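Regression report. Comparing outputs from two consecutive submissions.

Submission 1:
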Amino acid sequence: MFKEHAVMLGIAPIAWTNDDMPELGRDNTFEQCISEMALAGFQGSEVGNKYPRDPERLHQALALRGLQIASAWFSAYLTVRPYEETAAAFCAHRDFLHEMGAKVIVVSEQGRSIQGQMDTPLFADKPVFTETEWSALAEGLGRLGRLATEKDMTLVYHHHMGTGVQSAAEITRLMELTEPNEVSLLFDTGHLAFAGENPLEVLRVHIPRIKHVHLKDIRPEVVDRVKREQLSFLQAVKAGAFTVPGDGCIAFAEIFTELDRNEYTGWFVVEAEQDPALANPLEYAMKARRYIREISGL
């Protein structure tokens, strides 16, 4: 399965230190994080909040451990702020990633997002974009996508819980409103399952647009509790809604088969934001690495 060198396997630093809740993993250092990534057998990483932003320093630290940068999250505010504000920040982010050798730029619209609000119910208060907001988002993403191509890079849109692009229908609408040569899709298994969608079905619909993959699993009993008790996204994370592939309920073998059949090339990034005091990052990284090797051969 998967042609040699077609797929690179990375892991996100959010398991070591949470970007939205820095108190989770506060004592875990950048050096510990990337050393344990390498020890677990991964080839790369996305960028976390403890990573140095000086490309020379970051290159040196990663090269010592045989790691590369796959991408990094970018928060867009195209629905609530002037385009120029987002574009200026995007270009700086793009240039940093370009210096690090990344080929894709992960973008998520954070206008009216509730994902960072500790006490806002995730499902009851999910934002729903107006027609005007959809238009602003689609037009703005297209313009950002063209800025990405100036550096021979690709914008990949990250559908995410607690945002205006969460469901399969919302993903489809965004893909229909944007051009394939400007906006691609980040396929995140965990966020789809959390939203109540079938990741395999979404994959089959959008496989031509998918240029980046996040491998994340869910604990269905925790997701049920989130719905029942009207918990927020951050409360869901702290409760353990997410976990690594092989530790939850998602059937990844079918997903890998479909990606392979369509000759996917690019990064797979294991991502499971958990409380590192409860879920040891190295232990879970090794668990994910073993599982992926067993069912995909990677």
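Submission 2:
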Amino acid sequence: MTEGRIIKALSGFYDVKNEEGTFRCRGRGVFRKKNITPLVGDFVEFDKSTQGEGYILSIKPRKNALIRPPAANIDQAIIVTSAARPDFNPLLLDRFLVLIESKHIRPVILITKKDLLSESEEADLLDWQAVYQQIGYSVEFVSARELGDFEFLKQHFKDCVSIVAGQSGVGKSSLLNAVNPSLELQTDDISTSLGRGKHTTRHVELVEAGGGLVADTPGFSTLDLTDISAEELSDCFPEISEREPGCKFRGCYHYKEPKCAVKQAVEDGEIAEQRYAHYIRFLDEINSRKPRY
């Protein structure tokens, strides 16, 4: 029995890599019986054979796990969003950020297609960039030409496991091709009728890039906050979480409670009004969902 990390999952097969090489493995039947699915990024114990094959016997404890994209033990997420085609969507970006924060994964925001904007539209995007930078997030705002030169971004990949996430058509595969040209990942055009890109990534795989490992993950356009409670939501907004100790009432939801430090910070311009509006929208969404039994 030996140990390794799953670097690829496809059709019930798992490529497990360690210092000896890469082994094509199947999962034990007990995983199916217990409804356990091995994920890319998992550290596992497996039996190997001389033909470079084996069976996964156990999965080591995870520090985090995502359902969409299906990956585990992730250090950071490069959240790719576009300035146009599809249009910049701060509500969707905040959904990504909430999910990433809830898993204790470090976010990096990448806004693409800067060259498609007018001067006034670019000014609006720069305002949004400033909002997220003030919170403490790393934000890059680039044109299509700059997408091909990512020396400045490679530092984010070094010595960590990253995912690249975002809705379809924003440039995720183009980003990874720039970071690691040997990938030759397929890219596709935007559907002009739907305003979104076609899905071009068919499986999840960890590949070497920028001195670390990165997963190319399928794009998606919606995120459900089903695993986040109302009590946990504020922890997913750093600028809200850091002001909670100033609230009069312990367990304040920063909604209708009096003497709330968060609402005061919004009034004082210390917290962006639209970010707070998104927090309230997500809070209402969580509180209105039906209980699960």
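Expected: both submissions complete independently.
Actual: both completed, but the second showed a warning that disappeared on reload.
Relevant detail on submission 2: Residues 66-216 form a domain with the Rossmann fold fold (CATH 3.40.50.300).
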